Write a sequence for this structure.
């Protein structure tokens, strides 16, 4: 009975919102590119020795494998994506949900943790060395070949003010992480909870909001400097964000935003309000919401292909575009080449099975599907 109810629920959430008729559209949104997580295998081993955990819950796979992308990660990904063409002859494409900056650890340490300073992605890539030295050029190449399409995931993947307060308070876990080039773990030494550190726009105090507005503006400016065009889409890191940010997003050229179907919007100081967002709905700032309908996450989900195929089937049944998440961690090989090989192999198989099952599938970016929803304006 419980299974039946679960099955019904998984279908029901696909019903509200706008649709794309009978077209079979697959969108893969891949989060976290450009952001640091665990710096290297050596740093991970040192953190493990200091009491951080890297095995157990599925979420630990992020800290275990996720790191700044390398040349080989992107080359491997492009090879798989370009091998799969849709009915229109277009390659499979990742909507690359990207961060454009990271903390400047050296300068923050120098100022005694008194002030937060960030560095552009190009500086981080330089510090990480030769395995990352063509990442920026490869990003551009992938974009030119229509294998990736970048969108904004925030300036850095970090709740900056919460982090700075921890550093100033002398929090042992956060200071230890800092020494090894990490900043956004949920759990510290011996699993002490640190909170939702990667959620850049979670609001610990209402007074943090003004700073968050400046993060949106400077982050979107940096995005434009990096890519040469404005981001049209914003995916809030880990979900939470206060809707007063919408005004700054819209002013900077953003048109679409990823909405959770039931969003707990943080108001600061422990208060939340609940909002519902359905695909195709607009908010007061004229931003249109997109929703995700499933995930393809081979690094931390069992039977990832079967899981994703079911989600695609449900989305198509209700005339929705199948928008899936597939985080960078699945394609990271710097810490573990096996992790990347597994992710790429499964992605290749997944795309083959998609085409076999739905020969009329169309690969699209989030922007293309957003524009289509606006044009169609079909209520399902
Ligand atoms: Zn993310």
């Amino acid at each position: 009975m419980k299974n039946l109810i679960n099955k019904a629920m998984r279908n029901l959430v696909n019903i509200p919102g706008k649709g794309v008729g009978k077209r079979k559209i697959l969108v893969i949104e891949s989060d976290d590119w450009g952001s640091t997580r665990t710096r290297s295998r050596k740093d991970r081993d040192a953190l493990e020795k200091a009491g951080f955990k890297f095995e157990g819950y599925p979420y630990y796979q992020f800290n275990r494998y996720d790191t700044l992308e390398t040349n080989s990660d992107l080359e491997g990904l492009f090879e798989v994506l370009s091998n799969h063409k849709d009915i229109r002859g277009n390659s499979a494409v990742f909507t690359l949900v990207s961060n454009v900056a990271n903390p400047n650890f050296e300068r923050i340490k120098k100022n005694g943790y008194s002030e937060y300073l960030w560095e552009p992605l190009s500086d981080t890539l330089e510090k990480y060395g030769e395995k990352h030295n063509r990442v920026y050029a490869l990003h551009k190449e992938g974009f030119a070949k229509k294998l990736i399409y970048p969108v904004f995931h925030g300036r850095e993947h970090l709740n900056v003010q919460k982090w700075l307060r921890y550093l100033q308070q002398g929090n042992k876990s956060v200071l230890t992480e800092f020494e090894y080039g990490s900043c956004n773990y949920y759990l510290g030494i011996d699993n002490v909870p640190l909170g939702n550190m990667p959620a850049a726009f979670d609001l610990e105090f209402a007074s943090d909001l003004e700073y968050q507005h400046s993060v949106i503006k400077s982050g979107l400016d940096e995005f434009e400097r990096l890519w040469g065009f404005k981001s049209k889409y914003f995916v809030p890191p880990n979900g939470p964000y206060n809707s007063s940010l919408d005004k700054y997003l819209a002013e900077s050229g953003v048109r679409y935003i990823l909405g959770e179907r039931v969003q707990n919007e943080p108001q600061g100081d422990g208060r939340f309000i609940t909002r519902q967002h359905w695909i195709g709905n607009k908010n007061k700032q004229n931003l249109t919401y997109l929703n995700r309908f499933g995930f393809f996450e081979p690094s931390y989900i069992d039977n990832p292909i079967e899981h994703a195929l079911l989600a695609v089937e449900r989305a198509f049944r209700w005339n929705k575009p199948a928008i899936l998440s597939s985080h960078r961690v699945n394609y990271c090989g710097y810490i573990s080449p096996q992790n990347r090989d597994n992710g790429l192999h499964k992605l290749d198989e997944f795309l083959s099975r998609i085409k076999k099952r739905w020969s009329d599938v169309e690969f699209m970016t989030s922007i293309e599907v957003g524009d289509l929803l606006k044009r169609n304006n079909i209520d399902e």
